[in-house]
Fold each of these.
Amino acid sequence: DVKSKRSRWERLFISNIHCGAGCVLGDIIGEWGVFLLGLTFWGSMLLTAYVVDFALALVIGTAILYFTIKPIQNLTSFETVKKAIKNGTFVLTAFEVGMFGWMALLSLVIFKPLPEPTTAVYWFMMQLGMMIGLLTAYPACWLMVESGSGEHAVVSR
């Protein structure tokens, strides 16, 4: 069994990076989409980015999980999607809480407002936010892997 050959930190690292992939892709696409389309909900580009980034991260993360779970487990497509959403949302939310918190701090306290996504400063700050997201997702990944439940236990094998 491959799982028994991996240490705890390796299983957690794999699970966390796997979650981060969907979040990062959703955030990059969402940030550009909101900026280029000039979208605003409730008069706030920051809140709009949160909604769009989270939705895209959930869709992309679910797709990544689907194609990870489907070949490993003998589930119908519907069951696989359901499991991917159920097990991915918890860790994805933990990631986004860290990243969104960082971006709020930058936007509301440090930069007032954030620079536009056309600048290197913006993307450097986003990268720091994504690293913070990986840190805040770590405890959620730990819970998923240690409990042996959900996709994160499957992915970390």
Amino acid sequence: MSCSPGWIRYLVASALVLPTQISAQDSSLPFVYATYFECDPARESRVDALTRDAFAPLFDQRLAAKQIMAWGWLAHNLGGNWRRVSYVVAPSRTAVLEAQSGLAKDFRARQSKALTEFNQICPTHDDYLWQAVATSQPAGQTAQARPPAAYSIYYECSNARESRADTLVMQAFAPIWTRYVKAGGLKSWTWQQHIVGGKYRRLLVLDGASHEGILASTDSVLAAVAKERPAEGREFSEICPSHQDYLWDIQVAKP
């Protein structure tokens, strides 16, 4: 998918955080508009500079005006073809789409040169609109005060059984994840559902102080699931049999 001129497609991100054991039907949880970029690895530092110097002030203006709840910028550490992620968070689908459209206009009008250079370095991207289903953080603190590292798992699932996957997460897995948050191995976890976008239907985001710490906690969580909830673990794997892992460096995460 090639980038359109302007940042209208270029908002938002992967890995965010939101309130524990909340119903998948709870429409009060925030929405995240995420854009996943494929970039020239040799010029990624320039993209980071453009984001910091040209685009960040425009994001910050929307944040100060309370048009968005948070925004962020993530850098690839390990995983697939996506190299950078931009995200914005808003309390409703309408609000997040209006923020995206407004930012696109701002970028074109006020940072057209920087935007052209950005598009040359990152010529393709994928857009996703997510909404949290459950999380270890209050909804009002979504994507705020994030630590340096994130681990995102993007799942392909059976559309007809997605709600069952959400139930398994909230009933069987959320207590185990939360246990590791309380123990300090993880900073937070969030389970998100696909609203609009590509093939990935669910997203698990784990934040922590380091990638090594997150992965160590993940190993322990998997062992706990296998011991404590093996039937639920097998059922979940049947519903969501394929996934893609990414480790992200959180470069910007502003409330």
Amino acid sequence: MQLQSFDPSLAATVSSWAPSAEEVRSWCARSEAPVPPEVVAGWGEADDVEAYLLVDDGTPAAYGELWLDEEEGEVELARLLVDPAGRGRGLGRRLTRLLAERAREAHPALATVCLRVLPDNVAGHRAYLAAGFAFVDAETEQAWNAGQPTAYRWMVLSADA
């Protein structure tokens, strides 16, 4: 398995992995399901976003992004999604680890690697904990949720992960 830059021509494939409103909400906080492929294709075009695919023997298996925030000195892992056919096999953990490694290697000046997850996304919690992330304390979480559309659980990559 390897992490590679996202090819926008695969946007319809990635979009198909979250067909229900509930899955879309958990993946990218949108309400329409599925997310139109042209929207997925456009996400990686922003200067502060790097989009990636986890590929298994040439087949896309998972999608995720790095959101670069130089002002805050952080990289946020975002829009993490595993192909339903591969769920339950550790691909979410693998994607998270590889994205975190990529963030640290490519952006060493951005010291904090974080992510946000919905409180009821238990599978996500397990995958991110297994990848070396830890929940932030309640005070930090409250501060980071200021202005957010929902109350997320925030996690940071531990220094020794």
Amino acid sequence: MIIVVPDALLSPSTLSRGVAVAFEREIVALGSADALRARYPHAELIEGGEGSLLMPGLINAHVHLEFGANRSTLTYGGFLPWLYSVMTHRDTLMLGCDHACMSDLCDTMLRSGITTFGAISSRGLDLQACSAAKQKVVFFNELIGSQASMADALYGDFLQRLEACKSVTREGFYSAIAIHSPYAVHPALMQRALELAKTEGLHVSAHFLESRAELEWLESGSGAFKPFFAE
């Protein structure tokens, strides 16, 4: 049992003072520090001191640990210029961030108060770091590819990564599926992945309507995405 005595306690709707928290794996009781000490005399006591704040853990719902070494390779300021720069540098974006690098990034998030994160995994290179992370992790195995001729190969690779992910059995680690986006995943691939998610009860994530160009492409096959796919 641990009793935490902060200067202030932030709940989803209230900032309170003079409230301490007793917890083991979950919160057991709230009350004044004196009352909780009397109730749990053998509990470890952590006093935050003046200016300390106790609050729920933060969630980073979408992080790419595999790209963790990249800092300024890409072009920013507009969606299509950024996307072209991703295509140009796609073979080098994942270089430089090995298991130690990705583990450090997990620890950095934890020090920032992020206690749960969604890992969008393109190749499964971050599985080891995520399975060993201290946080709760939803591990989204990403499916991407719009060419019909590559559909079977891409889906086979996706299934292999998903099966490897499902072999992780630690508490707080959850296998999931990321369909990259409606413009970057062939409809047949998307349908197979959604059917699998329904059958196995897996959560699904997707990029959706990130730009006007995407909306124009999905609605009418026109706009800035048309030359992009032609190339």
